[in-house]
Write a structure and sequence with these properties.
CATH superfamily of the largest domain: Amidase signature (AS) domain
Number of helices: 12
CATH architecture of the largest domain: Alpha-Beta Complex
CATH class of the largest domain: Alpha Beta
Order of helices and strands: EEEHHEHEHEEHEHHEHHHEHEEH
């Protein structure tokens, strides 16, 4: 298994192979980093695990979405570190030196798209691909001060990507400027199937309450006020779904783990080796039986219908991306777990519904980035990017 290279531990230290890209196009001159769960022709896909890397053969073709970016002129600059089998939230893969968060060096980058976030935040790439199953675009983007969109589930093809939990897996990317972000979005997303303008922002008080403490609450209020100056004041509601927040959290946890075990359980049972934290998460999936999964799948469908009805054609949610700034890299396991649970209560809504959510880097706590999110109806990805542009333009003027 290769190590990492560079001061941020973002890139894998692999023998460089030529990867063709178009000389002209809307992304010409931009550098592209690729998370090591996506195939790149000529490279093995290691998925953050030494055994997987040793067992892999060099890919014969590049993942479809990555190829689209190359065909638009972006230049490949390397494969980036990922959490093991993309099943972690903090970017601390035991097999590698941890990536450095350039925006807050004493704090984690977030994961599982850890190296990609570090590469863009550190100016080593203009665009970096990631994935979002449970938050692996949104959390690192918030932690590292980047733009990140969890796309509508199924909207961007995942051919040539490692699967974790197929009904949750989505393709995503990072950039630190909205112009680049929107240019990539135009290529990958095309025209929104959701054709109604998003004009009615909503805010749910119990979601807002998941911010960590007074400093985070103060900063979140400032971010909401900035956004309101552009998109209008969110209508605040105590809207309660049929399932309680803890029930939605466990619905996500059980279904994600069930699918992850279904995807990778045979390999693990045959001797696949994992580091302790990741092994525990897959082990939890092994305990989720088919009846429990069916019950949670029904809960998920009911929630999706409820959220869709709440948003209708013209509404979108304004919410904190995560509870606050990234945890300190030196946090205890108990502190990481407490943050993870709180974060997943926020992150699971987009995953369970399949609806898109964008995080915008407009806040900070103790000098570390903290993102604001917009969550829209299914198929409103481009509309969210455009709303994000308006908010970021306003933030530049403050």
């Amino acid at each position: 298994m290769p190590g990492t290279q560079g001061p941020l531990n973002a890139f894998l230290d692999l023998r460089q192979m030529p990867v063709a890209n178009a000389e002209l196009g809307p992304l010409a001159g931009l550098r592209l980093a690729v998370k090591d769960i996506y195939d790149v022709a000529g490279y093995r896909t290691g998925c953050g695990n030494p055994q997987k890397f040793e067992e892999a053969h060099a890919a014969s073709r590049t993942a479809a979405a990555v190829q689209t970016i190359l065909d638009a002129g972006a230049r490949f600059v390397g494969k980036t570190q990922t959490d093991e089998l993309a099943f972690s939230l903090f970017g601390q893969n035991a097999h590698f030196p941890y990536p450095v968060n350039p925006a807050a060096p004493k704090r984690v980058t977030g994961g599982s798209s850890s190296g990609s976030a570090a590469a863009v935040a550190g100016g080593l790439a203009n665009i970096a691909t990631g994935s979002d199953t449970g938050g692996s675009i949104r959390a690192p983007a918030s932690f590292c001060g980047l733009i990140g969109l969890r796309t509508t589930h199924g909207r961007i093809p995942l051919e040539g990507a490692m699967k974790l939990a197929s009904s949750f897996d989505t393709f995503g990317w990072f950039a630190d400027d909205i112009e680049t972000y929107e240019a990539v979005g135009k290529l990958l997303l095309g025209r929104d199937p959701h054709q109604h303008p998003l004009t009615r922002p909503l805010s749910i008080r119990w979601l807002d309450a998941f911010v960590m403490g007074p400093a985070e609450a103060e900063q979140y209020a400032r971010m909401k006020a900035l956004a309101a100056s552009v998109i209008g004041q969110p209508v605040e509601t105590e809207y309660a779904f049929a399932s309680f927040p803890d029930e939605l959290y466990w619905c996500f946890r059980r279904l994600q783990a069930f699918e992850a075990w279904r995807e990778h359980g045979a390999w693990i049972s045959a001797g696949g080796r994992l580091s302790p934290g990741v092994e525990e998460r897959f082990g939890f999936g092994r305990t989720v039986d088919a009846r429990t999964a069916a019950t949670e799948a029904a809960r998920r469908l009911a929630f999706r219908d409820e959220l869709g009805a709440l948003l209708g054609n013209d509404s979108f949610l304004v919410l904190p991306t995560v509870p606050g700034a990234a945890p300190l890299a030196a946090s205890t396991p108990e502190q990481f777990q407490a943050y993870r649970e709180r974060a997943l209560h926020l992150l699971c809504l987009s995953g369970l519904s399949g609806f898109p959510q964008i995080t915008l880097p407009i806040g900070s706590v103790d000098g570390a980035p903290f993102g604001l999110s917009l969550l829209g109806p299914s198929g409103s990805d481009v509309a969210l990017i455009r709303l994000g542009r308006k908010i970021l333009d306003a933030a530049r003027k403050v």
